[in-house]
Amino acid sequence: MDSNRKTAIIVGALILIAYSVLASSITESKITVMLFEVISGVAVILIAVLMFPLFKPYNEKASFWYIVFRSIEGGLMIIAGILFLSRNNLLLEIRDGIYVGHGYIFAVAALFFYYLLYQSKLIPRWLSVWGFIAAILLILANLLEITGLIPGSMILYLPIILNELFLAVWLIVKGFNPSAIASGSAKTDINKV
C-alpha cells in the first residue's frame, strides 16, 4: 500500500473521528464531552496537515488558508472542550460564543477544502461540488440561526454532515484518484526545476 493510499485511509478515519463529537450529545458526562471535543479538534487539525502536501501543488495560497482555517477550527474545538469542564458561567458563555464563531470558521475551511478537492481532482468532482454547496448552505444556516429568522435552519447542516461522512467512507474504500496524485507530483517536480 503506497503512502497516498494510507493518507486517504487516515484522512477518512480522521473525518469519522472528528464527527464523533456528535455522539457527545447523548451523554451527561462532562469528561466524556470534553474528550470528544478535544479529540475531534485534534482530528480536524491532522486532516489539514495531511491534506496540505496534496493540495499545495494545485494552489499554494488556497492551501495555506485551508490549513490556517482548519487549525483555527480545531483549536477552537479543543479550547471549547476544555472550557466545558468549567463551573464558571462566564467561561461557559465564552464556550458558547466559541461555537458560534466555530460554525463560520468550519464553513470557510470547508469552502477551501472542497475548492481544493475540486481543483485537484483527488476525488470525483460531483463529490467536491456537493461539499462546496453544502458549505454554502452551512453559512446560510449559521446566519439564519444567529438572526433567528427561520426556525429549523439546523436542517441545513444535514448536507455537509452527509457529504463528509460519505467522503470519509469514499476515502477509506476508494482513496484518492491516482492520476490526480501523479498530476500533482508532476506539478511539484516542475516547480522545483
TrEMBL record:
Please verify whether the record's keywords include DNA-binding: no
Which InterPro entries does the entry mention?
Answer: DUF4386
Residue ranges spanning the membrane: these are 33-52, 64-85, 97-117, 129-150, 156-173
UniProtKB keywords: Membrane, Transmembrane, Transmembrane helix
- In its keyword annotation, does this UniProt entry include Transmembrane helix? yes
Q: What is this protein called?
A: DUF4386 domain-containing protein
UniProt source species: marine sediment metagenome
